[in-house]
Amino acid sequence: MMPDEIETRLAAASAIAREAGALARRTYRGRPRGKRPDFKGHQDFVLATDAEVEDLIRKRLAAVCPGDQFYGEEGGGTFGENVWVVDPIDGTANFARGIPHFAISIAFVRNRRTEVGVVYDVMQGELYAAARGRGATLDGQPIRVSGIADLGHATVEAGWSPRRPPELYADLVRRLKVAGANVRRAGSGTLGLAYVADGRMEAYCELHINSWDALAGLLLVEEAGGWTNDFLAGEGLTKGNPVLACTPELAREFAELTGLRRDPGGHNPSLPEGDGAGTSF
């Protein structure tokens, strides 16, 4: 990818995320009080705001990059050589419940490799952005993973997915707690990954996550000096995968605790030799 392409796409995604965030924020603040959330599945809310925000992002990206394809969580689309992968609101359950912890995730993928990633924390007004090889920023300032190497001082967010049995999630949390890590769950994988990149937590893991929730955040972590599993291995782009992102100092320990290993063909060598045994839980 040429440098001007990187700058154009990164600048566009950043501006669009802020505009879309303003729309989501207005809707959140103007939502009816006491109204019961709508459901489209167990603990999975559907809101008109999702579709409105996604439509805005889709139209703005099409105007700037008309040759690119688009795939959004709500409206779908096409996965191709150059594709934007978007979650208009990650943390929809928080949004619906009146909890101000949700984000917009915009990632640009070329030939199955994420090149641009933007995460906008809607209610905090914080914009995380990264382009491959150019580092990661928060509101324009460089960010780095925490560098903590002691598991007893580490905080990890363990995301829950309805696509995996709850017993597996409970066992994952148990193993992390027994090992001494502080475990939390805040309801947005996108923000969880951004927090790892910004040194607010040491790790994020989930038994299964979709690409639109993870790609932008994973690039943030990589560009902030962190370690990530090879999320796009196999059918990760279209069907999702398990995810692990953490400080490189704790990569071996978290890989062993979660059962997740770096794909041998991955490009990030941060995990010490001998822990590239494939991707599985």
What does this protein structure show overall?
This protein has 281 residues and is of the alpha+beta class. The chain folds into 2 domains: 140 residues, Fructose-1,6-Bisphosphatase, subunit A, domain 1 (Fructose-1,6-Bisphosphatase, Chain A, domain 1), CATH 3.30.540.10; 108 residues, D-Maltodextrin-Binding Protein, domain 2. It contains 8 helices and 15 strands. An 8-stranded mixed β-sheet has the order 4-3-5-6-7-8-9-10, sandwiched between helices. A hairpin with a 2-residue loop joins strand 9 and strand 10. Helix 1 packs antiparallel against helix 2. The longest helix is centred in the N-terminal third of the chain and has 27 residues. The two termini are 34 Å apart. The C terminus is likely disordered.
What is the fold's blueprint, element by element?
Elements: H1 3-29, E1 39-41, E2 44-45, H2 48-64, E3 69-72, E4 76-77, E5 82-90, H3 92-97, E6 103-110, E7 113-121, E8 126-131, E9 136-138, E10 141-142, E11 155-159, H4 166-178, E12 182-184, H5 189-197, E13 203-209, H6 211-223, E14 227-228, H7 236-239, E15 241-246, H8 251-258
Parallel strand pairs: 3-5, 11-12, 11-13
Antiparallel strand pairs: 1-2, 3-4, 5-6, 6-7, 7-8, 8-9, 9-10, 13-15, 14-15
Helix pairs in contact: 1-2, 5-6
